[in-house]
Design a protein that fits this description.
alpha/beta; ANL_N_sf; AMP-dep_synth/lig_dom; Acyl-CoA synthetase; Rossmann fold; 26 strands; globular
Amino acid sequence: MILETRTSQFVKMASYIHTVGVAENSYDTIPERLRIWAEKYPDKTAVVSYDAEYKRHQITLKEMHDGAVKFAKALMKLGIKKGDKIAFCVPNCVEWMSYDIGIMMTGAYSMRLMFGLADIKSVIEGCSAVVFGSKSIWDSFLSIAQINNNGKVSCEACPDLRFAIDVSNSHRPANALSAAKLMAEVSDDDEVEFPYIDPEDIAAINQTSGTTGVPKRICHSHFNFINLPDKFVSGTSISTFDVLFSSRPMGYIGGYPLLLLTKGAKHVTGDVEMLNDTKNFDFVVNLWQQEKCTIVGVAPQDLKRLGNRGFRVKTVLSGGDMLTHDAIEYSFKIADEFGIIYGATEALIISSRFFTPENMSQHRQGMLGRPLEGTEIKIVDEEKRVVDIGKTGYLYFRSKWTTKTFLDGTSCLEKGWYSTSDIGYLTKDGDIIMIGRSTDFIKKCTVKLSIKLIEDYVGRQPNVDAVVVVPIPDEEQTTFTGVPSDTISENIRVEEKIKKN
């Protein structure tokens, strides 16, 4: 780890850090990596998924690879070719990776969609086919397109669309092609020459949330997906024999089975709505024990629900929010260590850090960890000048893993750096400390109040399950809206604490 210093009239340390890479990279593609694992451990369970009715499903590495090959052959029979874009939006299921990697095998790009955040016309623009798996998604699609005989699509708004494929069967619209039927019609004897795929080729396209407008299309190569997770697990004991649980959508960066590809580790997931319903939290914890999970992803708001459960896991992972000291301490009731992950769609993983009861004294409020190998971080002021160590500013990063351009070819960088909306500072030890996001402050006169700090304070109250602070431009009034608890007196006490502080 190198901290750069600048010499001027006054010798000061600048808020810049570069974590030098030492681990070797692999020059593989995702389909090739899956083939290797399938040949080495054909009968090893690859993915376990629990559906909305709590039913368990599983798939082995060989079954996953065979399914990917069949789906790829079926797509190529339909005329899908290298460079095509396939809109892919399928709920978590054991076949998910077979569909995703099958698309890659054809040389087409798997464009993973986030619906509900933008007009559907804008998110499927330029796609040759859609592969969907839920009623809500199909309803959105059918509002702009018509599916004719043999799955052929007519869509004035998206003239490139040719086919519509359904993976659910129960929600399949009339005339949509069935993925299961297409794959069943593929014979092992069918000779199909798959196109050459280079590790530098686009593997998948992820969309940003679209909070600043139409979602941007972020491209990542096979090289990125295969190698970056290795930097994250470098120096840890994570191996093929670990079992990871994630309640995130598999199409999101945070829910994609990266450790399955990198280490061959089993991935446990399920219906996202069911797994994230607070009333199902005990079911989820029991699931960890049943599946012998060693690494579990837990949402920040659920950390305080962890407790002594009669079994332990190796690691709890969390991110996507500024984590308090107390929140991390909760994890030690069930885990030996806690891992903070800070990432972005544009860079996959930016920084991380692992804590145990022995080194928790080093934790600071808002700590995001230290940059992964090959990653540079700098903190700048409003004039884009690097500030001194410990000074607050805007966080920028760059690395070989950072997307350089969007799918349309426009640059997503500023002089080679990616600009975030995160505000924080860098410590002398190389830790990134987040204060908040540029949109997460309430300005009152000359003072900026952190929304996150207010939420953390209120959220620590024992009678508060969850809290959201919304800025309202009023110099005199404070508004408190609460969902009633069991007793009115508890709500009154919470409201009094808010007014007092």
